[in-house]
C-alpha cells in the first residue's frame, strides 16, 4: 500500500510555527532525513496529451529499474488532484510489481508547495518543460518558474538553451530562490517528454512507437540526473 505519503505529513510540524526558523532550517540542506527525494510530475500526460495507460507502464518500469540500482533514495510522483487518473493507474501498477512503498509513492499537491502546504520535504523536483526551456506555457512548467523567481531562468540559461525530446538537464537552484528558501528545493531537473499535441511544435502524429521510446528515455535521463546530484 502507499501510505508513506501520510507518514510524511507530520514531519517537522514544529518548525512550521515560526516561519523564519523553517526558512533557516532549509538553507544548505541537501537531503530529507538523509534520503534524497525526487518529486516529479507525470511527464507529457497533460498538455502534451500522451496516453495515460502507456505512460503509467513506463513510469512504473522506469522507477523499478532505478530503485534496483540505488538505495537511500525516494521517488515521488506528484499531481494536483486526488482524482488524478495517472496517480491511480501508477499506484495500482506499482503495487502489482511489488515496488517498495517507502521508496516510491504518490503525493497529491502542488509540486511548488510540497513543504509549506503538504509538510513533505523533497530536495529535488522535476519539471515537464518545453524544448526552449522557457518559463510560462501553463502546467507545471509555469508553476515552477513562478514559484522559483527569475533566478531559475538565469540558472537554466547557464546550463542549456534548448533540450531535445527524451533528455533532461539539472539546474542547481540559488539559495536566494523562494523555492529553495521556503520549500528546501536545491535542484530543478527540466525534462522534455514526447509531444502528442498537434497544437504544439514537433508533435509526433500519434506515433507511439517513437513516443514510448522518448518517454522511456526521458525518465531514465531524469533518474540518472537525479542520481548524479548526490553521487
Ligand atoms: N504540481 C504538480 N503537478 C502539476 C502541477 C503542479 N503545480 N501543474 C500541473 N501538474 P503538463 P506536459 C501535473 O501539462 O504534458 C507546458 O506548457 C499535470 O496534472 O504541465 O509534459 C510546458 O511548457 C500533469 O499530470 O506537462 C510544455 O510546453 C503533469 O503535471 C508542456 O506544457 C504534466 O502536465 C508540457 O506538457
Radius of gyration, Cα only, in angstroms?
17 Å
**H-E order:** HHEHEHEEHHEHEH
**Strand order across the largest sheet:** 3-2-1-4-6-5
**Molecular shape:** globular
The top-level CATH class is: Alpha Beta
Overall mean pLDDT stands at 88
Structural overview:
Helix 3 (52-69) packs parallel to helix 8. 39% of the residues lie in helices and 14% in strands. With 231 residues, the chain is an alpha/beta fold. Strand 2, helix 4 (85-96) and strand 3 form a beta-alpha-beta unit. The protein has helices spanning 4-8, 19-24, 52-69, 85-96, 139-148, 150-159, 178-183, 208-230; strands at 36-41, 73-79, 104-108, 124-128, 168-172, 187-191. It has one domain (4-230): 3-Layer(aba) Sandwich (Leucine Aminopeptidase, subunit E, domain 1). It binds ligand AR6.
Compact summary:
By secondary structure, the chain is an alpha/beta fold. It is built from 8 helices and 6 strands; from the N terminus they run H-H-E-H-E-H-E-E-H-H-E-H-E-H.
What labels describe this entry?
231 residues, alpha/beta, Leucine Aminopeptidase, subunit E, domain 1, six-stranded mixed beta sheet, 14% strand, binds ligand AR6
What's the helix and strand layout?
Layout: H1 4-8, H2 19-24, E1 36-41, H3 52-69, E2 73-79, H4 85-96, E3 104-108, E4 124-128, H5 139-148, H6 150-159, E5 168-172, H7 178-183, E6 187-191, H8 208-230
Parallel strand pairs: 1-2, 1-4, 2-3, 4-6
Antiparallel strand pairs: 5-6
Helix pairs in contact: 3-4, 3-8
Residues 41-48, 78-80, 86, 110-112, 128-130, 137-141, 143, 193, 200 line the site of ligand AR6.
Amino acid at each position: 500500500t502507499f501510505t508513506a505519503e501520510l507518514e510524511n505529513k507530520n514531519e517537522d510540524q514544529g518548525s512550521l510555527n515560526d516561519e523564519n526558523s523553517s526558512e533557516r532550517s532549509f538553507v544548505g540542506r541537501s537531503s530529507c532525513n538523509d534520503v534524497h527525494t525526487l518529486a516529479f510530475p507525470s511527464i507529457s500526460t497533460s498538455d502534451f496529451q500522451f496516453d495515460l495507460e502507456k505512460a503509467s507502464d513506463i513510469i512504473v518500469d522506469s522507477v523499478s529499474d532505478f530503485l534496483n540500482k540505488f538505495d537511500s533514495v525516494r521517488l515521488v510522483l506528484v499531481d494536483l488532484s486526488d482524482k488524478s487518473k495517472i496517480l491511480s493507474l501508477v499506484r495500482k501498477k506499482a503495487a502489482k510489481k511489488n515496488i517498495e512503498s517507502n521508496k516510491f509513492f504518490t503525493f497529491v499537491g502542488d509540486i511548488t508547495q510540497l513543504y509549506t502546504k503538504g509538510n513533505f520535504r523533497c530536495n529535488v523536483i522535476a519539471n515537464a518543460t518545453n524544448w526552449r526551456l522557457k518559463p510560462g506555457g501553463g502546467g507545471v512548467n509555469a508553476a515552477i518558474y513562478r514559484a522559483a523567481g527569475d533566478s531559475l531562468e538565469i540558472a537554466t540559461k547557464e546550463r542549456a538553451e534548448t533540450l531535445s525530446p527524451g533528455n533532461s538537464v539539472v539546474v542547481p537552484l540559488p539559495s536566494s530562490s523562494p523555492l529553495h528558501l521556503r520549500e528546501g528545493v536545491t535542484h530543478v531537473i527540466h525534462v522534455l517528454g514526447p509531444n502528442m499535441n498537434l497544437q504544439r511544435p514537433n508533435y509526433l502524429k500519434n506515433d507511439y512507437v517513437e513516443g514510448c521510446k522518448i518517454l522511456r528515455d526521458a525518465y531514465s535521463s531524469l533518474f540518472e540526473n537525479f542520481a548524479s546530484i548526490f553521487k
